[in-house]
Amino acid sequence: MKKSDIFWQTYLSLEKEFINVSNFIFITDEITTHENGKEITKPCNFQLETFSPHIADLLIRCCVQIEAISKELYYDNGGTKPRGDKSLFFDEDCLKLIDIKWAIHDKRVLVVAPFFNLTKEENLVLRPLKNAHKRAGTFWEKAYQAVKHDRFASLKDGNIKALLHSMAALYLLNLYYRNDSWIVKYQELSKSDFSMGSSIFAVKQPEVGQLWYGNAPTISESPYVVRYQAEDYKRIEAMQKADNEALNHYWQQQPEIREPEFLAILASERKKQELDPTHRILYLWELGIYRLKKMLPTNLPFEERKEKFIKSEAWNCWVNQHNTHLNPEEITENNIDEEIKNVGRRWGMDIEKQYNTMSWIHLAMNGAICKVYIPWLILN
């Protein structure tokens, strides 16, 4: 049996006892009353502040496990103090090292138990290890230390809220110690159970971002990350490369890219990008606008210009016809120039669609195999 199994079994045992407490204490942060003939819901804190010797005992047992598992994670991840060193502290030494490696202060734990009737965001989404690397830096550790050192005078600190937060911390540390990973299709990722076997908690689903560009895992509020398996990502890259080569070949064949007027437009776009890094230069869109304007010069009589516009390839292309645009009878002398610009942009999209097939998207977002795992050494 692995050490992690022992810690997890102990956690699950504590979780069962906590769930049993909820059979006798209604765990909620709101109450419903009747006032003036109306049903009124009000916030309340006193249920979470409910304390007892049994709850205090569960808090202490939970935090003893936190101390123990923090030390195991410390030793497994490069901790330099020897076992048994009396100067080794679970918070300032162990949790500090763990936080450096995994940014545990930023990880969220979701309270998903249907038998906990919590409604406030602060009680449903917890950051149980925020400031945990500082001496008594968390709400639950302050309660733990108070109850441990003066059970009678500090019994009120052994309450539901402190137990909830400490259990969330222990749950999260167990996930890191177990270090589970699994393989799943991209399209099945959202169906994964991120409670990881808990009946009270879950962690957030990992963010994927634009995984298909670079296959770089995204560090987020989840302890887990996702990346494609190497062979599937190679297939995605090959398909993207083929699209890019087809687009580049088409671009190089266009006479407009050697025309001073069009080159000036591109230079203006690059200037915008220098001033605003978020500005994207959409080359084929600019080409579509420029090409259509050349076909429909402003010195043409309006009716002739309008007729050529409606009969143009740009007007009749798939992208324009399948997106909102003016009807022919709505085009006037006042709006034709703006509509030429809009249609030219869609023409550029249509051209891009012909060469940039995006066939890799089906693989990337459906059949591609991903690995879900806890990353190592995310911070230096």
Question: Could you give the count of β-strands?
Answer: 8
Task: Tell the overall outline.
Answer: elongated
What kind of oligomer do you see? single chain
Instruction: List the secondary-structure elements in sequence, H or E.
Output: HEEHHEHEHHEEEHHHHHHHHE
Give start-end ranges of low-pLDDT stretches: none
In percent terms, what proportion of residues is strand?
Answer: 5-15%
Write the layout of secondary structure elements.
Layout (H helix, E strand, L loop, with lengths): L2 H19 L8 E6 L2 E6 L9 H24 L13 H13 L6 E3 L9 H4 E2 L12 H11 L10 H19 L3 E4 L15 E3 L21 E4 L1 H23 L7 H16 L7 H13 L6 H10 L1 H4 L1 H4 L14 H20 L4 H8 L1 E5 L7
Antiparallel strand pairs: 1-2, 3-4, 3-6, 5-8, 7-8
Helix pairs in contact: 1-2, 1-6, 2-3, 2-5, 2-6, 5-6, 7-14, 9-13
Compact description:
This protein has helices at 3-21, 53-76, 90-102, 121-124, 139-149, 160-178, 230-252, 260-275, 283-295, 302-311, 313-316, 318-321, 336-355, 360-367, and strands spanning 30-35, 38-43, 109-111, 125-126, 182-185, 201-203, 225-228, 369-373.
Keywords:
380 residues, mainly alpha, 14 helices
Description:
The protein has 14 helices and 8 strands. It has 380 residues and is mainly α. The strands form 3 sheets. The chain has a 3-stranded antiparallel sheet. The chain has a 3-stranded antiparallel sheet with strand order 5-8-7. A hairpin with a 2-residue loop joins strand 1 and strand 2. It is elongated, with a radius of gyration of 30 Å.
